[in-house]
Design brief:
Chain A: Pfam families: 7TM_transglut, Transglut_i_TM. Chain A: This is Inactive transglutaminase fused to 7 transmembrane helices. Chain A: Keywords: Membrane, Transmembrane, Transmembrane helix. The complex is a heterodimer. By secondary structure, chain A is of the alpha+beta class. Chain A folds into 3 domains: 95 residues; 119 residues, C8orf32 fold (Roll); 192 residues, no CATH class. Chain A is elongated and about 115 Å long. In chain B, the strands form 2 sheets. Chain B has a 7-stranded antiparallel beta sheet. A 6-stranded antiparallel beta sheet of chain B has the order 1-6-2-3-4-5. Chain B is built from 10 helices and 13 strands. In chain B, strand 12 and strand 13 form a beta hairpin. By secondary structure, chain B is α+β, with helices and mostly antiparallel strands. Chain B folds into 2 domains: 213 residues, ATP-grasp fold, B domain (D-amino Acid Aminotransferase, Chain A, domain 1), CATH 3.30.470.20; 85 residues, 2-Layer Sandwich (Dna Ligase, domain 1). Chain B is globular and about 55 Å long. Classes of the chains: A alpha+beta, B alpha+beta. Chains A and B meet through helix 11 and helix 15 of A and helix 1, helix 2 and helix 6 of B.
Chain lengths: 509, 321
């Protein structure tokens, strides 16, 4: 059991991390790359009518989990109306009621939707074959003739519907012309097609929707035919028989009913307007998670105040830096000052940028070291000496900042509080190593620390990594798993292959 | 292909790497609670004295800055002495005074230092500057070893010592550490001292290693380092083996100095002995650890263990050519 303990722990950590990561990335739609935007649309339906006296009820279809889209937000705008929403058959409807309307009434329904590649709508079960309609002659035999001919040229339900729609459009022979005329509206054509499909016992329905464009007002509703191929509803264009909705098409309601049904009112009008928007993908995913009531969002970093968020943006990268240190120290064998000093140096590079940071670091550390050796001659005790070094380092930075500002170089100014402490500590550590192990060790460890810090810094400033760890903090579990795994590495370090090269070619003893 | 060695070849020779040392030897055989016994040289000295082992005589201990005023009284007994931190690591913070002229002291480098300078060193030691983790420390003032003339020609200042690696109470490898100009009189290999392999069976020196290179002569004096016979080798190995009993540490470095008058003195113990000893002996520790594992029996006396190890490894180290 002891042997499997660590591997099991590592596997559990990785599995946990990946599960959460997958859920957030693919179910909630958190973006994998930084600064990603998602387009969304604000769709507004404007319903107008004239009351004829008395209490008015207006029933309006509204979208219900439209295919390929996700609703982020809904607003109902009306003055003096009571509102309920509910499901009616396949559709959702809003019911506005008022007792004493006067003059022309206008109601608004506004919704924000965005594209979602995964369809959240469960697949509709097959409603079963429909019973054919009872036609009178000559319709009955004509319909039979049409169906027989279409069946001969089609392979399955979908192609049957496609061929039928094309026939209705193109071949006004005597059988078909009984059912259609060229002046028929789309809606009438769909109605006819549904009837004829019913003759072949194929379930079909009418769908009404609008295309989501960049920006437009007074959008025309489009009417589509949908047939059920026993697995799912397949949309068919009533004009040319092509299968599938175009990109960014929003189905508003199904069925042959009017979108607005009024009680004690007349002249219903409905018009649609669409505006496309670009939103930060993270905001969209967050809203979405809230709509979906995901418990994960209760633990999201995005709920924290912005300042705390910014702090964690930096802090979350420290584990990654620590992982790099483990890698470079235990696998490669680079010597550094202390264990985590390089991570701290890397963090201070964030404020100065790499090249400026390295130059500044080397400059201040060498100057500080020189002063430290001078202080040593004064025979000060450890703590006062460390304090003196800090004071001198601040004065050095001050001088450097003023000098570089006067010379017009802005890098020197970016030294903040944090790097200062790190520089002072580095100087103290380096001087001790210098004294005790000699200059070569001190310089080697200094360069090692800088190199490790630079590597950690380059990884830490990578915007994708920054973004990934902030949006998906559960990735820290993977960093932990990797570190645990490295903790069991007992093989040779790369540097030891050089160190022990004297063994080369000798006989094994 | 010249400047490195393949890991496969290293593994075949049984060479132990840093990670393996930390995981398989130190973490496995050295329980943490026992570390203070060897990290505190004062406690080590007491343990060794209780066990009747020979150690350099302790003149006095300074524990606070206030006590520094006792320094003249402590060092009055002898013209030469050594000041070292009780928790020092890697030979850091050791001040060797070889002689005295009125109020000034001569350091091993030949430079003079006054009483104030010595006091400053002591207070640095007390502040923890030379200690593991920078903890406040104690300063020990003790007998300066007058090392055996055997190593006179192959040392540059400082005191050469003999490091024996003891595994589960069996001496498994040893080397003589010779200070050089590079190492500033210190006997640590990573500071530039020469490590000379010792045949465990005979106590005769073989080739040496300096800055990870194989050498035959001392880099400063040019004297050959091979074929030197360490006197009282059997007793020295037995002393090393006994250190297992007094500490309980299964992977131990025992540092012994040869004093001209007092013979082998146990200087200090190390719970994390380095790996350079492998280079000095041209042999891997892993091989020898495996051999001991196969021979190991409970309840053997230190003499028996030392003798057994001598038998096992007499041919292991390369004979002096």
């Amino acid at each position: 059991m002891k042997r499997f303990h660590l591997p099991l722990l590592i596997m559990a950590l990785v599995a946990m991390s990946l599960t959460m990561f997958y859920h957030k990335a693919f179910n909630l739609g958190f973006p994998l790359t930084p600064a990603q935007t998602t387009s969304n649309w604000i769709v507004e339906a404007r319903v107008g009518f004239e009351p004829t006296g008395g209490a008015v009820t207006a029933r309006v279809f509204i979208p219900d989990q439209p295919r390929g889209l996700a609703i982020l937000d809904e607003n109902f705008i009306s003055r003096g109306y009571g509102l309920t929403t509910g499901l009616v058959g396949e559709n959702r409807e809003a019911v506005w009621t008022t007792r004493q309307p006067s003059g022309r009434q206008v109601l608004y329904y506004r919704t924000t939707v965005y594209r979602l590649d995964r369809d959240r709508r469960g697949e509709d079960p097959y409603p079963g074959p429909v019973s054919p309609p009872q036609w009178e002659e000559p319709y009955a035999s004509a319909a039979e003739e049409v169906i027989t001919r279409v069946r001969a040229r089609s392979a399955d339900i979908t192609s049957f519907a496609t061929v039928l729609v094309r026939d209705l459009k193109q071949e006004p022979d005597e059988n078909i012309s009984l059912f259609v005329s060229s002046s028929d509206s789309d809606r009438a054509k769909v109605r006819t097609a549904i009837d004829l499909l019913a003759g072949a016992r194929i379930p079909a329905r009418m769908a009404h929707g609008i295309p989501l464009t960049e920006r437009s007002r007074d959008l025309q509703l489009q009417t589509w035919l949908e047939v059920h191929n026993t697995r799912e509803w397949v949309p068919i264009n009533i004009h040319d028989g092509s299968v599938g909705y175009p990109e960014n098409f929003m189905v508003w309601w199904y069925g042959d009913e009017d979108p607005v049904r009024l009680n004690r009112a007349r002249n219903p009008q409905i018009s649609f307007a669409v505006t496309q928007n670009y939103m930060d993908a993270i905001d969209v995913a967050q809203q979405r998670a809230q709509v979906m009531d995901s418990w994960l969002m209760d633990f999201s970093l995005f709920n924290l105040p912005v300042q705390t968020q910014n702090m964690y943006r930096v802090l979350l990268l420290v584990p990654l830096g620590a992982m790099i240190i483990v890698l470079l120290r235990n696998i490669v064998g680079i010597q550094t000052f202390g264990t985590f000093m390089p991570v701290l140096i890397a963090l201070s590079f964030r404020e100065t940028e790499l090249l400026g940071g390295i130059i500044l670091f080397t400059l201040i550390v060498s100057l500080g070291l020189a002063i430290r050796f001078y202080l040593d001659r004064l025979k000060l005790l450890l703590v006062p000496r460390l304090a003196s070094v800090v004071i001198v380092v601040i004065m050095l930075m001050l001088t450097l900042s003023i000098l570089s500002h006067n010379l017009g170089i802005e890098h020197g100014l970016s030294v903040a509080l944090f790097p200062m402490v790190i520089l002072a500590m580095t100087i103290e550590r380096m001087s001790i190593v210098w004294e005790e192990h000699g200059p070569s060790d001190a310089i080697r460890q200094g360069i090692g620390s800088l190199a490790v810090a630079a590597a950690a810094y380059l990884l830490m400033i990578n915007p994708t990594i920054d973004h990934l760890f902030f949006v998906f903090p559960e990735l820290l579990l993977i960093a932990l798993a990797v570190t645990l795994l490295l903790g069991r590495y007992t093989g040779y370090r790369l540097s030891e292959l050089v160190r022990f090269k004297a063994f080369k070619g000798e006989k094994a003893s | 292909m010249k400047w490195f060695i393949s890991p496969r070849e290293l593994r075949r020779k049984g060479v132990v790497g840093m990670n393996q040392r930390n995981a398989d030897l130190i973490a496995e055989h050295n329980p943490r609670p026992l570390y203070p016994l060897v990290d505190d040289k004062l406690r080590t000295k007491q343990l060794a004295l209780e066990a009747g082992m020979a150690v350099p005589e302790l003149y006095g201990v300074i524990e606070t800055n206030h006590d520094i005023r006792h320094l003249p009284r402590i060092v009055a007994r002898s013209d030469d002495f050594v000041i070292k931190p009780a928790h020092g690591a890697g030979g850091n913070g050791i001040l060797v005074i070889t002689g005295r002229m009125r109020d000034s002291f001569r350091k091993s480098s030949g430079r003079m230092v006054d009483l104030e300078g010595v006091g400053h060193h002591v207070s640095n030691v007390l502040s923890g500057m030379h200690s593991l983790g920078g903890q406040p420390d104690k300063a020990m003032v003790e007998y300066r070893v007058k090392f055996d003339p055997l190593f006179e020609k192959v040392s540059h200042q400082g005191v050469p010592d003999i490091r024996t690696v003891v595994y589960k109470g069996y001496p498994i490898m040893a080397m003589v550490r010779l200070p050089t100009r590079d190492s500033d009189g210190k006997a640590n290999l990573h500071q530039g001292a020469v490590g000379v392999g010792v045949n465990l069976g005979t106590g005769r020196t073989g080739k040496g290693v300096w800055h990870n290179r194989i050498v035959d002569v001392h880099p400063d004096t040019g004297a050959p380092i091979q074929g030197l016979q360490i006197p009282g080798w059997d007793a020295l190995l037995e002393m090393a083996a006994r250190c297992f009993e007094i500490t309980g540490l299964g992977y131990l470095g025992v540092d012994v100095v040869l004093d001209r008058e007092r013979g082998p003195l146990m200087l200090e113990l190390n719970a994390r002995p380095g790996l350079a000893v492998q280079l000095a002996n041209g042999s891997g520790l892993g091989e020898r650890v495996r051999l001991i594992e196969s021979l190991h029996r409970e309840g053997l006396s230190p003499q028996r263990r030392a003798a057994l190890a001598q038998e096992c490894f007499s041919s292991a180290a390369k004979p002096a050519a």
